[in-house]
């Protein structure tokens, strides 16, 4: 695999007791990936971090949730010519009022089998459909 095609960050699909998925509305500023789009929490790995440490840190920074652990999911790539990012699964037993917006414009739990908010990148829709309880895949 080409060095520049390897993933540099991870995604975390967090579900609550009702089976809803946590999404984050990214800031709408130039120079970031997918500005103003709904995405799963996650982000770039820092030097020396494992993928699991990366996932736990990013979730805390973006949502205020201190997950005890994450489980790496087996995923097929959204685009066959690219390696998929590491995607992790986790559950959250708290309430939406426990969320702390650390990055982005908004955090929202949504039903994966319902209408997802727009705009949402195709790769995020792909992973939700395949991994969320009640998803289409």
Q: In the CATH hierarchy, what is the superfamily?
A: Nucleoside Triphosphate Pyrophosphohydrolase
pLDDT < 50 stretches: none
Q: Order of strands across the biggest sheet?
A: 4-1-6-5
* CATH level-two architecture: Alpha-Beta Complex
* N-to-C order of helices and strands: EEEEHEEEH
Task: Determine the strand fraction and express it as a percent band.
Answer: 15-25%
- Classify the helix fraction into a percent range: 10-25%
Q: What does the radius of gyration come to?
A: 14 Å
Dominant shape:
globular
**How many DSSP H or I helices?**
2
Largest sheet: 4 strands, mixed
CATH class: Alpha Beta
Count of discrete structural domains: 1
Structural class: alpha+beta
Count of DSSP E strands? 7
N-C termini distance: 27 Å
In CATH, the topology is named: Nucleoside Triphosphate Pyrophosphohydrolase
Tell me, rounded to a whole number, the average pLDDT: 92
Explained architecture:
Helix content is 17%, strand content 23%. The protein has 137 residues and is of the alpha+beta class. The chain has one domain: Nucleoside Triphosphate Pyrophosphohydrolase (Alpha-Beta Complex), CATH 3.90.79. The protein is globular. The mean pLDDT is 92.
Secondary-structure blueprint:
Elements: E1 9-16, E2 21-25, E3 38-39, E4 42-44, H1 51-63, E5 71-72, E6 87-92, E7 106-110, H2 122-131
Parallel strand pairs: 1-6
Antiparallel strand pairs: 1-4, 2-3, 2-7, 5-6
């Amino acid at each position: 695999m080409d060095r520049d095609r390897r993933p540099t960050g991870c995604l975390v699909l967090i579900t609550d007791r009702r089976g809803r998925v946590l999404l984050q509305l990214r800031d709408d500023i130039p120079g970031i990936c997918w500005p103003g789009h709904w995405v799963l929490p996650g982000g770039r790995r820092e030097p020396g971090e494992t993928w699991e440490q990366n996932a736990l840190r990013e979730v805390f920074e973006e949502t205020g949730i201190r997950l005890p652990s994450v489980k790496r999911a087996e995923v097929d790539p959204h685009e066959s010519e690219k390696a998929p990012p590491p995607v992790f699964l986790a559950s959250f037993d708290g309430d939406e009022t426990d969320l702390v917006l650390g990055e982005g414009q908004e955090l929202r739990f949504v039903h994966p089998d319902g209408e997802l908010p727009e705009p949402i990148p195709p790769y995020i829709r792909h992973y939700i459909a395949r991994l969320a309880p009640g998803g289409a895949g």
